[in-house]
Specification:
- With 301 residues, the chain is of the alpha/beta class.
- The protein is 41% helix and 25% strand.
- It contains nine helices and 14 strands.
- The protein has a five-stranded mixed sheet with strand order 4-3-5-14-6, covered by helices on one side. It has a five-stranded mixed sheet with strand order 11-8-12-7-13.
- The longest helix has 28 residues.
- The chain is elongated.
- 25% of the residues are buried.
Length: 301
């Protein structure tokens, strides 16, 4: 079994770029740093660092070994944090990855309230629609929409996001109110991403399904921009309920066919099972779940 102290020393040499800086940071003599590294390389039977009087670099094997060492140290830090936070209020760095739209329009507007409640928590946020590797990239928690792939991560359901059809009173006064879903194709419909020549809305309601195919007047990948366009009377669009729940209701907005919506999407938080639930993760989850319940109680779900 490897000495964890040797692993920590090796990682600190690589992180700081020198033996002297690693020794200074760790508060031990430089000779001890050299001895520990030499012993680690001897036990492994490989050279981890190429070093000369002028420079130092990782060998190919050293690069692979360092990636695993980083993960080990992250786990040690997490274990220490869990123990400490059991005795104190939640504190420390919480690393989150969120889908772009959900992060921008639901999570970010409530972050200030969360940080006010937990002043000792710091946040590192990555907004991306790409699936990050929670373990390898060192995230404490990620939020994902829709169906989940099988994984070793623990999943906790936050709530449901629905989209319904909205228009403004100004638009309806000018163009008339569609009486049936089929009449939507005669109106200026706004699409979210997708093809600029043809778009479709899949709708569910009353135990049935319908699909509306249309040529979009505007295509935009930002739901908040679509909401602004609808409010300005430019057309009809599908709007997520979470956008409406966090802002004062626009009296100009009218929900058309409220019994119909896009298929609901479950929203889940995922975190590594082997880390347990750190207090920082627990309080963030509880906070977000409460905010999703506001969406539900307001009729969004």
């Amino acid at each position: 079994m490897r000495d964890l102290n040797e692993i920590i020393i090796f990682a600190k040499i690589v992180e700081l770029g020198s033996f002297s800086k690693a020794a200074q940071f760790l508060g031990i003599p430089k000779s001890n740093v050299s001895q520990k590294l030499a012993h680690l390389e001897e036990c492994l039977g490989v050279r981890l660092l190429q070093r000369s009087t002028r420079q130092m670099s990782l060998t190919p094997t050293g690069e692979l070994f360092y990636k695993h060492c980083e993960r080990i140290i992250t786990e040690l830090d997490a274990a220490n944090a869990v123990v400490l936070n059991q005795q104190e209020s939640p504190r420390g760095l919480l690393r989150l990855s969120l889908p772009v739209a959900l992060g921008q329009h639901f999570i970010l507007p409530i972050i200030d309230e969360f940080l006010d409640q937990f002043p000792d928590i710091r946040l590192k946020l990555l907004l991306t629609d790409h699936l990050v590797d929670v373990i390898d990239e060192g995230f404490d928690l990620v939020i994902r929409m829709g169906q989940l792939a099988d994984s070793s991560l623990v999943a906790r359901r936050l709530g449901v996001v629905r989209q319904r059809i909205f228009a403004s009173t100004d638009y309806l006064a000018k163009r008339g109110t569609p009486k049936t879903i089929e009449e939507l194709v005669e109106h200026d419909c706004l699409g979210q991403s997708g093809n600029a020549d043809i778009a479709q809305w899949k709708l569910v309601g009353a135990g049935a399904e319908k699909t509306v195919c249309f040529t979009p007047r505007v295509v935009c990948n930002d739901p908040l921009v679509l909401l602004s366009m609808v409010s300005a009377g430019l057309g009809i669009a599908m709007i997520p309920d979470i956008l409406l729940s966090l802002r004062q209701q626009d009296e100009k907005l009218v929900c058309l066919f409220p019994e119909w919506s896009a298929p609901p999407k479950d929203c889940h938080a995922l975190f590594p099972s082997h880390r347990g639930m750190a207090p920082t993760v627990r309080v963030f989850l509880d906070f977000v779940i409460r905010r999703f319940s506001v969406v539900s109680s307001s009729g969004g779900t």
